[in-house]
Amino acid sequence: MGEVVLYSSVSVDGFVADENDQPGPLFDWLSGGDVPLDGSGAVKVSQASYDYTRPYWDRIGATIVGRHVFDLTDGWDGKPPAGVDHVVVVTHRPPPAGWDPGAPFHFVGGVEAAVAKAQELAGDRVVEVAAGDVGGQVLAAGLVDEVRMDVVPVVFGSGKRYFGSVHAQHLLADPAEVVQGDRVLHVRYRVQRPE
């Protein structure tokens, strides 16, 4: 089974969005460079960010998001973002009316079921979990292998927290990798398991 990775761009004070669910400048690093990160040509990053991000994106087999993110993005119009093969949506509500049942989106009722479904779909590829409330729940359930953060030099002061509403301590290993891009610091941590 593929590894489970909690991931997002994040402010230096730990937020993935402001109080109005807006990312503000968190994704500016994705348009501030001169190296195309995907086939669209709209996403351009520094060479250092490309060398760090592209190999990771190529390993993602499924992404897990909450219903809130799904609704905010209008389900990406039924096309998973960044070339991901499948999106697993954690929700207790049915898909929206008129939703294409053939779209590679899977609706499940809890984080454990979401991880199991995503791992089934991804095979030996990475299962990415969007940071925020659902990501925090997956971490709290002991199902995250790695935490990846694209730390952006901005302070929000309040908003949507990277780890959601996690209220327990979780120990991470020393950084496995730190890469400085333009207007972003890419950091990767392994999650330490209790012995």
Automatic annotation (TrEMBL):
Gene3D superfamilies: Dihydrofolate Reductase, subunit A (3.40.430.10). Residues 112-178 form the Bacterial bifunctional deaminase-reductase C-terminal domain. InterPro entries: DHFR-like_dom_sf (IPR024072), RibDG_C (IPR002734). One of its GO terms (molecular function) is 5-amino-6-(5-phosphoribosylamino)uracil reductase activity. GO terms for biological process: riboflavin biosynthetic process. This is Dihydrofolate reductase. It comes from Amycolatopsis eburnea.
